[in-house]
Write a structure and sequence with these properties.
It contains 15 helices and no strands. By secondary structure, it is mainly α. Helix 4 crosses helix 15 (267-288), helix 5 (92-123) packs across helix 14 (249-256) and helix 9 (175-187) runs antiparallel to helix 12 (216-231). The protein has helices at residues 2-10, 14-59, 63-68, 81-88, 92-123, 129-140, 148-158, 164-168, 175-187, 191-198, 203-214, 216-231, 235-240, 249-256, 267-288.
């Protein structure tokens, strides 16, 4: 028996031994490559999150500590003076309230009107539909800053300057949202609507009761983009209002750079305001992140 085993071992060629050795080393190489990839991703993540960590840490520093150690993640003396000054000795609560009001109305309006416009372009056949869609694409390619002066002239001509109406109405629709909804509605088979039409449902009833619930992933995407866009909007509010009572968070935080509340660098004050501004958008994203453009939801096989 031993002679037979030795004979078989002698008949193994060098190339076969190298292949067997390669198979043994393959898992080790795979583990090493995966570890290197994870290390690179961790480094990139730390580079990306470092400014946010510095922002939060600086908001709890004193002015002197923030000026002398701006990159430190641990304040020498923990202080909530910046937050107390924002909420007790400034108009920050008014800024937050104005931003919240505008954001809620703009988000609801964009969800409704973008859905209506997207459904019309995707399903309704009318003269000029192609031209309207081409104009929609053209609007998406125009920088928003170019439209600031025409926007101000229209708002002023309508007599709504320096009002909530001027802050909300021009933002109720956006070309990107209509484009997203149109593409999603086109991915839904038209056969889904046929039964409802046979039962006598009108166009709006089909849209509201049949198609819109199936577009939940696109709606969640519109909600997040609209919330983030209106919450962080600045240029439109600059040309639409001038009253301190209508100042939003973005305008208020921008005004802190001019030394509105006190002298000095005011690093803790500015970064505390920026940290508070980040919270609603972060919460909204974490709540709906799993539903963003999940195109498999509501799919129908024909």
């Amino acid at each position: 028996m031993s002679t037979t085993v030795r004979t078989r071992e002698r008949t193994v060629s060098p190339s076969q031994r190298l292949r067997a050795l390669g198979r043994e080393q393959l898992p080790t190489r795979a583990i090493a490559g995966r570890s290197l990839l994870y290390a690179i991703l961790i480094v990139l993540a730390m580079i990306y999150i470092a400014p946010f960590l510095i922002q939060v840490a600086t908001s709890f520093k004193t002015d002197g500590d923030a000026a002398s150690n701006p990159m430190s993640l641990l304040p020498q003396t923990w202080s909530t003076a910046a937050y107390e000054r924002l909420f007790l000795n400034s108009d920050f609560p008014v800024w937050f309230q104005n931003s919240a009001i505008v954001t809620v109305f703009v988000t609801l309006g964009r969800v409704f009107f973008n859905s209506l416009a997207g459904y019309a372009l995707a399903r309704l056949h009318f003269r000029g539909r192609t031209v309207i869609f081409a104009l929609l694409i053209a609007v998406m390619s125009v920088p928003g800053v170019v439209l600031l002066i025409p926007k101000f002239l229209v708002i002023n001509q309508l007599g709504i300057y320096d009002t909530y109406v001027a802050m909300i109405v021009p933002l109720l629709t956006d070309a990107a949202g209509v484009f997203i909804m149109k593409n999603f509605f086109e991915s839904i088979p038209a056969s889904v609507e046929e039964q409802a039409r046979i039962d006598g449902a009108g166009t709006f009833r089909v849209f509201w009761s049949i198609v819109l619930p199936m577009a939940r992933p696109a709606l969640v995407t519109i909600i997040i983009l609209s919330f983030q866009g209106s919450w962080n909007e600045l240029s439109h509010f600059i040309v639409a209002t001038q009253s301190p009572e209508l100042t939003t968070l973005t305008k208020g935080v921008a005004s802190l750079a001019s030394g509105q509340l006190s002298q000095g660098t005011q690093y803790p004050l500015k970064l505390a305001a920026a940290a508070i501004m980040t919270i609603p958008v972060a919460v909204m994203f974490f709540i709906f992140q799993k539903r963003i453009m999940n195109t498999t939801d509501g799919a129908v096989k024909e």
